[in-house]
Protein 1
Amino acid sequence: MAVKVGLMLEAIRHQDKPFVWGVEKAAEIGYEYVEPMLHTGRELLSEAGYYHSVSQLEDPLWVREVIESHGLKLSGFSSHAPLCKPEISLEWLKMSIRFADYAGAPVINTDEGPKPTWTSKEMDYTLMTYTLTETARVAERHGVKIGLEPHQQYRKTLEGLDSIYELVDSPAIGINFDTGNSYLAGLSDPYGWLEHVKDRVVHVHAKDISIQHSEAERGKVTGTPVGCACGDGVIDWSRIIDILSEVDRDIVLSVECGTVDQAVRSFEHLTSLL
């Protein structure tokens, strides 16, 4: 099996351009996969063409047509909904799974999200168990994986991510490993962490962290929205690829950076290693 390279469309967020423009740009650079972001309802900036996310009220077959017409494939959808808040996340994630099935995306990625200010850890874990149980049942029917990402308050360590992954026993639940978040949290070695979870990884957010960012925030935050260009920062991409090359299925490195220029440099660096 192989390690592939894709682009998370966060790379065009500051370009003030729509989803279709982002797909065209990913194809132009040479990426094989893209990972769009889903949102619920209607959102003004997306409707006006200034933002890259896709409404789940759109026709997923149209999304599929756009992707395929540019010679690309979906690695997954970014569908980050707060698992600790089932009144928000439950229907969001179930809709995302159905949307992913029709669009042809194998994975939706999420994390526990910001927790309610008034709940205890025990309550949060009960809420996450409820959300994941209901969501996993839908995911199993549709053949879509749920990628749990290291981020936020509980998944910032190897043990914390394991504790949430183990809440629900379902073949639909996997891990979306974020190289940058796992590094920035500073509490678990990111390479040892990836080695530990590699057999459960269904998707990877390829996020590099600049030296300046590392010096300013490592150990103080649980993650970051985007990183720098892959190869410009502290992450050892040869080591990441070596670990992922040992698994028995294709894994997509979905580049999570902040600009189109960074997306170009990331593509050049990662493809040179592959």
Note: Residues 3-273 form a domain with the TIM Barrel fold (CATH 3.20.20.150).
Protein 2
Amino acid sequence: MSEAADVAAPGANDRLVVAISSRALFDLSESHALFEREGLDAYRDYQMARENELLAPGIAFPLVQKLLKLNDAPPAAPRVEVILLSRNSADSGLRIFNSIEHYGLDIARAAFTSGASTSPYVHSFAANLFLSANPESVARALEAGVAAATILPSKAPTTASGQLRIAFDGDAVIFGDESERVSHEQGIDAFHRNEVENVDKPLSGGPFRGFLAALHRLQAAFPAGDASPIRTALVTARSAPAHKRVILTLRSWGVRLDEALFLGGRDKGPFLQAFGADIFFDDSHANVESARQHVATGHVPHGVHNKSKGAE
């Protein structure tokens, strides 16, 4: 994604728009397994027969609740909108909307595609972020220039907070993967030399730069510090001396992150649990495996870590 595309990301206005798939919002594991075993007709009959039975919350449900709660802020604050994108038909998707109504989620816009890809509508709805349990849909959204992540089976944090807490990896998520490529191809010593030599050159923007900017604009509408309903964190494998370029890059963008953890390769999961992340975004398969044992986790299939395995 080009630098210009980062700045002019879809939805770059006062609203924070999050598009989410039905399988990320609700627990549809049983019916999805039926779909994979017996096909679309069996799935549709199953959902229509149970359309008055409530669905259990899914991995991203607490995140959506907290996002929508931000709309309780004064009218002058930027608003949050959550869009439902589902491969269900409108008939089989009625159970989903019944569950949305029961839980009091203010979700009014939706697209039901009857098995077709939902990714074309991510850009049409001007989403800043797309969350899905379908890796192919996520890859297509990323290709279209929208921040996107595959929601993985994860464990909810044990320390619940009233704040919305979002954590990001740095390279290949907030930033481009040019430095990560140096580490991947030449080793950690070459990586540190590269970061010291280029310390005053801002890193390029990664796929989540636009979403981070939109989140920052939303956060700026609230009081700073503990009184803010939003708290953000950078959780990166970087350590000194590679930390300085990150700090200066964020400063040059005019973006604030509340916490920055430079872990030097330590497992991220326990730190994310201590932070109480409602969701964590990372491109590395190893990192997301650690993280999802502790918090809701989204895999971002972008950058050098994902090239050998394709867009997952």
Note: The first strand starts at residue 16 and ends at 21.
Protein 3
Amino acid sequence: MQYQAPRWLPGGQAQTIWPSLFSRHTGGPKLDFRRERWDTPDGDFVDVDWLDSPFESAAERPLLVLFHGLEGSSQSHSSQAFATVARSRGWAFAMPHFRGCSGELNLAPRAYHSGDFEEVAWMLARFKEMHDGPVLAAGVSLGGNALLRWAEEHGQSAAATARAVCSICSPLDLAAAGRAIGQGFNRLVYTRMFLRTMVPKALRKLQQHPGLFDGERLRGARDLYEFDNLFTAPLHGFRSTEDYWARASAKPHLKRIRIPALVLNARNDPFVPASCLPRQQDAGPYVTLWQPAQGGHVGFAEGRPPGHVFGMPEQVCDWLARAL
């Protein structure tokens, strides 16, 4: 990947925070999403946002499916940027929301997590069933790790569903990322930001399903390790945070991937230490590693202040298009 951060935006923290708040992430006409609700096999629902015209008019165009990051949505700056780039190429675009992230609390006694490849598998199978053209899939941060876990678990059979996949700034080693986000500036800023929305949602889930977990202890959670230990792990069949982080991490299984896969991580990402990133010998022949020195966590701003964030999605979509 070719990327050089602008001189006015130095360092991984600035390259993470500024683009998400201030850089331009939409272009041309307003993005017009059409929401569709899918009933899940376990009696719950997920909401899918389609871009622009009704899906039937997409014909055999490529469909780009984007999986968002932790507490993300179709309104996230990365989602908007990828939708803009997909529209400029004439691709169909869809953004499924993980449970509880579309603005409405889901119904079942579960939420979502970084290794949720079963949910990704169900979603992608439905997209493939609905769409006549080729399906390409990308995932941002948490969504990218879950997408790679899907590709790893499905091996050669993944090719029947998606032509190629890409993870963007994903914590492929969840233990290393968990330690990083729980320290120093990251703990003061990002951990607080995530817990500010995650804890209230979890407590609303407890109102739906009394006794699901210890609400008083969850109210006292001060980092993602404690939150995952009290909520994410037990709700999704893991023994503990350590068990969850170990079993959900995509890095140990990259060699199992049998479709073209791009793994993009900036080496100055505050959430994902460069020391934990995979090397080519970890990845196998189907995986391409892009590890630019700069970019932050899903930042990659370009141009004059306030900048824009289209460059990275353009390069990712160029790479995905080669699989067509």
Note: The mean pLDDT is 96.
Protein 4
Amino acid sequence: MIEECFVRDGKFCADGVGIDQVVSTCGTPCYLYAASLIDEKYKKIISSFPGFEIFYSFKANPNVAIAGRLRSLGACADISSLGELEAALKAGFEPRDIAFVGPGKTEQEIDAAIRMGLYAIAAESVQELALIESVSRRLSMPVNVLLRINTLEKPSSPEMMVGGPSKFGFDEESAVQEVRGVQLDSARLVGIHVYSASQVLDSGFITKHLDYVADLALELSSQLDFDLRCVDFGGGFGVPYEEDQAGLDFGSISHAAAGVRKRLMEQAPGCRLIFEVGRYLLAESGIFVTTALRIKESRGTCFIITDGGMNHFSRPVFMRVKHAARILNKIALENDTRCSIGGPICTPIDVIATDVLLPRPEAGDIVGIFHAGAYGYTMSMMNFMSLGAPAEVLADAGRLHVIRKPKAPAHVLDVSTPDRFPIRHGFRV
């Protein structure tokens, strides 16, 4: 994947942009995205699932330029906060193509979602359903509601959201009884939402999941007596971060989806069918780019100390994902040196790649951590150690666009001048 997409004539190249141009434009650390890969992944998924709509999960990467590109390709939006809603609107998404999900919505968020006329709000508990009804009635504005269900499925994934006790959704076995206990006059049930797990690489599970959710949607609409107008199957389509991982078999999933769509259209004509997708669309398009400050040998291990670490790219540390790494200015050279890559943060867990084979490193080398397009910038701890925040840049047909400027430490901490700090014991602190 890396050599196929990012190597041209023996040199690193992202959509016609070389690494020297990236570094001279925005310095390091930075996040670099390849536009053609985003386009390619979206076109693949939409062609695999005719009749389904793709709702882009903003939590994967809320950058307005990235989201706007997906909107131009035809995506809708899946948001979980007022900040993500603002980003979605700024990116050009229409309210009728935005769904609000998440287990902890406030009254303010529900109020804003209803006033804006979003397509639907996913109710995750009986208390939240009652609150949606209350706000809808107060505003005298009807609102579509999807019931999020914690099913009895058992997905194979490190990030499961169903199958056991969960903060997400109504438990499948008690959903009917709980929903019947809420008097709905203004909020209208239109469908269900089931997000089983994230980073799923088991195609067999996904094919079974589609049938499971379709059956459940038909059953609940019958028992709760509402017209089934939407089924949100969630998403969770994974990407192979490690070399020994296989990607999803989209052929089998597509075949299963076609059968489910046919069945639902026969029993619930016009029903809106949704996949929520984030990681699959963006992960492989992004690279976290850093500079090697120095090379350090310690008891037989070669450490590359870089100018960006877990503060700017937290996922490898906290999710224990082994991301591929390359020295971008030596990308075609032989990988003959076993290294670990650590940033400048004063904790031993700040190692973002371990035991990777690279060309012999030198200070000044440009190091790239791959599959960083989703849950990279947005998931990281930018304020840790007050080192500022990296830029985000998009390579597109030979041109480089700065889509988020870097932030100096003072800006990240909301400090404008030293005068804002009090003087204590003769020292300004």
Note: The first helix runs from residue 2 to 6.
